[in-house]
Design a protein that fits this description.
Blueprint lengths: L6 H16 L8 H12 L12 E6 L7 H11 L9 E3 L12 E3 L17 E6 L10 H18 L6 E2 L23
Parallel strand pairs: 1-4, 1-5, 2-4
Antiparallel strand pairs: 2-3
Helix pairs in contact: 2-3
């Protein structure tokens, strides 16, 4: 049987095809890889409670297109996480996967994210779809980001400045990208 005819391939087909276009990953041509993807995707999550968030962290996806469903699949099936790692995703409208400026809920705010190793127990993660090493976020994304940060600050009484993913010790990525605007004092 051709792998593309296998029921597991068909089950995950749209995500596999999106991933092949966006993320440089190893070949998906082996059935054992598909079985692992399916196992990771179907396993029950083991969330930890997020009790008192005191910091907001901004990320970029490092890929041009995406949405909550795609990142959920990517993080769960390929990375083995419990769910999408971010609490919020702000779309950019590219590749027809999201609406420019639309805010989607990722993980619920009562559970820890998976977006900054060793810091998820007190942080809220916001990811803007796009690769801001190569271009700027859209105007609509920035409007939505500012509004969302303001709402989260009020809801959780967060008084600390926002942080970018790259601000944490041990992070070697440029996240949220080399071209992402300096908003530390604005947010």
């Amino acid at each position: 049987m051709d792998l593309k005819e296998h029921p597991l391939y068909k089950k995950h087909q749209k995500y596999l095809e999106w991933t092949r276009q966006s993320v440089p990953l190893k070949e998906f041509s082996a059935l054992d890889k598909l079985k692992k993807i399916d196992y990771e995707f179907e396993k029950e999550p083991n969330f930890k409670i997020l009790e008192n968030p005191t910091q907001i962290v901004i990320h970029h996806a490092e890929i041009d297109g995406g949405n909550r469903d795609y990142y959920h699949w990517l993080h769960k099936a390929l990375f083995g996480w419990d769910a999408v790692g971010y609490h919020f995703i702000i779309g950019n409208g590219l590749e027809g996967l999201s609406i420019d400026g639309e805010v989607e809920i990722g993980r619920e705010l009562n559970v820890q994210g998976a977006h900054v190793r060793d810091h998820n127990h007190y942080t809220i993660g916001i990811c803007l779809t796009g690769n801001f090493d190569n271009y700027l976020p859209s105007e609509k994304q920035m409007i939505s980001l500012k509004k969302l940060v303001k709402e989260l600050r009020v809801k959780f009484n967060i008084t600390t400045k926002i942080k970018y993913h790259r601000d944490f010790d041990g992070v070697t990525k440029s996240c949220p990208g080399k071209q992402f605007p300096d908003l530390y004092d604005l947010l």
